[in-house]
Design a protein that fits this description.
- By secondary structure, this protein is α+β, with helices and mostly antiparallel strands.
- It has three helices and nine strands.
- Helix 2 runs antiparallel to helix 3.
- The protein is globular, with a radius of gyration of 16 Å.
């Protein structure tokens, strides 16, 4: 946190350790074909539902009960982890992602996280939500890679987390500020 107590924060669903291990294996197989991409460490990969940015302690306090309520209303769910792609969809790629097919209760949870963020004083997120796991980022212009088929199967989604993000030369460090089990 900064001197004023502010933190860079986001709301996400934690991933199962076995899935993170499988993602690490996928990243190792992809590395030779991706060029100068900076891969996200597998332990830092999560399903972001709402990026918040600069967050005050008051906003964190406002978010906690709203996120707890939203998580309690969403049962634990299963998501299919498959498909590779890049953002943006055209031109030089900036982000490599792994897709997730999430059931409607998780989409409802994402909407509830957006409402909680708005109630805590954050601006509305203009971009539509697309469930994905960020695997890496290109810092410089790169050719669009040919991506293989990737299917890591199903994974269980069980915990919503309010994270603090601290940027460092070795990559972002994520610290949970609060955890909320899905389904209460």
């Amino acid at each position: 946190m900064s001197a004023a107590g502010h933190a860079r924060a986001f709301v996400a669903i934690e991933l199962d350790p076995a899935l993170r291990e499988a993602i690490g294996g996928l990243q190792a197989r992809l590395r030779p074909r991706l060029g100068a991409i900076r891969q996200v460490r597998p332990q830092g990969i999560h399903l972001t539902l709402r990026f918040l940015g600069d967050t005050s302690p008051t906003q964190v306090d406002s978010l906690r009960p709203r996120l707890a309520e939203a998580a309690a209303l969403c049962p634990p769910a299963e998501a299919r982890v498959a498909g590779l792609g890049t953002f943006p969809e055209r031109g030089s790629p900036r982000v490599l992602w792994l897709g997730l097919s999430v059931p409607s209760p998780v989409l409802d949870l994402q909407h509830a996280c957006e409402r909680a963020a708005r109630a805590a004083g954050f601006e509305r997120e203009e971009r539509p939500f697309r469930a994905h796991l960020t695997l890496g980022r290109w810092r410089e212009r790169a050719a669009r890679p040919e991506l293989p088929v990737a299917d890591l199967g199903a994974t269980r989604l069980e915990t919503l987390v309010l994270f603090r993000s601290d940027l460092s030369p070795g990559g972002a460090v994520y610290t949970p500020l609060a955890r909320f089990p899905l389904g209460g």
